[in-house]
C-alpha cells in the first residue's frame, strides 16, 4: 500500500525523518508549492525564490534516485494552494493508505497538520525532526522547573553531550566555555572583509524568480542580487567558503558594523540551514576541524559553534516550550505602530538606513544589526511586538517563526519579560558609535542627547530607562543606567523625555524621520 511522504519547503534534507524507510517501489513523496505558505506573511521575494528553488532542486535530486515525487508547482491549475488541500488531493490521487511527515518548524503548521487525519481519513504519522541537535523533549527535560533558562548553561550541556570543543567529559577546549570578551572589536579601518561566495541563479532559479515577480509583485525586497545556495552541494560550498576565508576573524568582528560592509566576517549559512540544505552539526564540525588544524583561533571557532549549538538550539527549545502563548507576550506594554521607514529605508539615521536598505536588497542583515539597530530602535521606541515580529518574519531569507520569534520577543524586545535575557538589550547611540562607523556619516550627532541634531538613540534610550525604571529597579544588570539617570539634572531628563515624545509623535504622523535640524 502506498505511503504518502510529505516534505515541506524547509525540509529539503536527504536525512529527513519522513524519508526514513522509504521504499521507492511503493511510496510517493509529495512536495507542494502553495500560495498559503508564500503569503501567510508577505515574505521577502528572495525568501520565496530560495525556498521554491530549493524545493525544485531537491525534487529533481530525489527523482534521480528513482523516488516518485508528486510535485505541485505554484502555477499548476489543479493546485489547491494550501498544504492540507494538496495532501488530501494527492493522497486520493495516488491511493495512499497512510501519510508520514516530519514535525514542522512552526506551531501554525503543526496545528494544520493535526487536522490532516480528519481531512484525508488516513492515519498521519508526525515524526520528530532529527535535524536539530537537541530533541524537543531533551530541551524540556533541561528546562524542567528551572527558574532561569539561561542559554549559557544549556550550551555547556550541549558541548558535553556532543563532545564539540571538549578535551574530556567536563573540560572545555582552551580551559573556558566562552571567549566572548575577545569578540567585541569594531572593524579595523584597514581590514577588508572577503566577499562571501555568490551562487548565480541557474535556469531553475531564474524560472522561480520570474514566477515570484509575477505572483508576488507587492512583496518586500528586490530579487536582483539573489545569490543564495539552493542545493545541498552549494550550501556545503558556502560553508567551506566561510571556513576558509572568514571564520578566522569571525570572533574578532562578530559584533562590528560598517558602512558598505553588509556581511563582514559572518557565515551567511542560516538561510540554507533553516530550509534544510545544510546540517548544523556538519557546520559545527567543520569549524572545529579548522581549529584543530590550526586554521582558525579558538575565540572564532567557539563563538561560531556557540551560535549554532547554543543559540540556534536554545531558541528552538524556547519556542516549543512556550508556544502558543509566547507569540502574544508584551511584557513592556509596547503599542506603537512600526514606522514606515522600516519598509522604505527612508530615514536620516544612518545606522538604520544601512540595516534596512541592505535587508531590502539582500534579505540579510547580520545579528548585531538585527539586535542592536532595528531591534534596539523598536525596543526603545516601544513598537508593538506583534508588528515587529511580522517585520522580522517578512524581511529575512532565513526567517521561520521557531527562530525568529524568540529572537524578536525574547532577545530584541524583552517582550517575554526576561525568559531569554536577564536584561533588555537597550543601548544608546554610544554603543552604535563604538561598534560602527555609521555615526560619522549621519545627519544626527551621536554625542548629543538633547537639542538640535541630537541622536534619537540617545534621548530614546534615556526615555526608555526612565519609563521602565520601576520595573527594572531591582535588576542588578540595570542598576548602572538607572543610577546614572537618577544622578542626571532633572531638567536634562525632562528635555530628553520631551524630545523623545516629539520624535515619536513625528514618526506616528508618518514623517520618514524628523529633520535633525528641526529641534
Ligand atoms: P552568523 O553570524 O554567521 O552565525 C552563524 C549561525 O549561528 C547562523 O547561521 C545561525 O544559524 C546561528 N545563529 C546565530 N545567532 C543566532 C541566534 N540568535 N538565534 C539562532 N541562531 C543563531 N536567525 C535565523 O536563522 N532566522 C531568523 O528569522 C532570525 N531572526 C532574528 C531576529 C532578531 C530580532 C535577531 C536579533 C536575531 C535573529 N536571528 C535569526 C539570529 C541571527 O541574527 C541570524 O541567525 C544570523 O544573523 C544569520 O546570519 P549568518 O548565517 O551570517 O549568521
Ligand atoms: C517558506 C515557505 C514558502 C515561501 N513556500 C512554501 C511552499 O510553497 N510549500 C511548502 O511546503 N513550504 C513552503 N515554505 C516553508 C513553510 O512555510 C515551512 O515549512 C513552515 O513555515 C514550517 O516551518
Ligand atoms: Fe545611528 Fe545615532 Fe549614530 Fe546616527 S548618530 S548612525 S542615528 S547611532
From TrEMBL:
Region (Disordered) location: 175-198
Listed SUPFAM superfamilies: Cryptochrome/photolyase FAD-binding domain (SSF48173)
InterPro entries: Crypto/Photolyase_FAD-like_sf (IPR036134), PhrB-like (IPR007357), Rossmann-like_a/b/a_fold (IPR014729), UV-DNA_repair_photolyase (IPR052551)
Pfam families, A to Z: DPRP (PF04244)
Name of this protein: Cryptochrome/photolyase family protein
